[in-house]
Amino acid sequence: MTDKVRSLPRPLVRTNQWVIVISAVLTLVFGEGWFLIVPLLAGISGIVFKYNPVMNIAKLFLKKKPEDYIQEDWEQQQFNQKLSVFCLGAGFISFLLGWNTVGYVFTIMVTIAAFVAILGFCIGCFIHYQWKMYKYKSTIKS
What we know:
The protein is mostly helical. 72% of the residues lie in helices and 4% in strands. It contains six helices and two strands, in the order E-H-H-H-E-H-H-H. It has helices at residues 10-30, 37-48, 53-59, 74-96, 100-119, 123-141, and strands at residues 7-9, 71-73. Strands 1-2 form a two-stranded antiparallel sheet. The radius of gyration is 16 Å and the shape is globular. The two termini are 32 Å apart. The mean pLDDT is 94.
């Protein structure tokens, strides 16, 4: 029995994070929620269809084989993607409804999270770890 761990090359994850950051910064600068649509739709596609077009386009530019790069855990990235889709979606819908303050709050949150992840600290990973520890501890107490 072989247990193959699903993973993603770090450059693809970083590209996705940069697309989120750039789109969010454009939204913050111009006050237009429509800039969020690209990372939002890419994220939804990644979650629902397991096909993220941003990462698949970026894969064309890899200089080495995907497995030759530092790998990121696929499950963890799916969790992070769900968090970012939530924030991007909430920001986008808020801008559409004219709730600009709420839109800015969610857009700033996803921008900070993605940029900090690029710098090396994954907020989503921290939340995911805390959630798993909470679930583990709650099973011990039962």
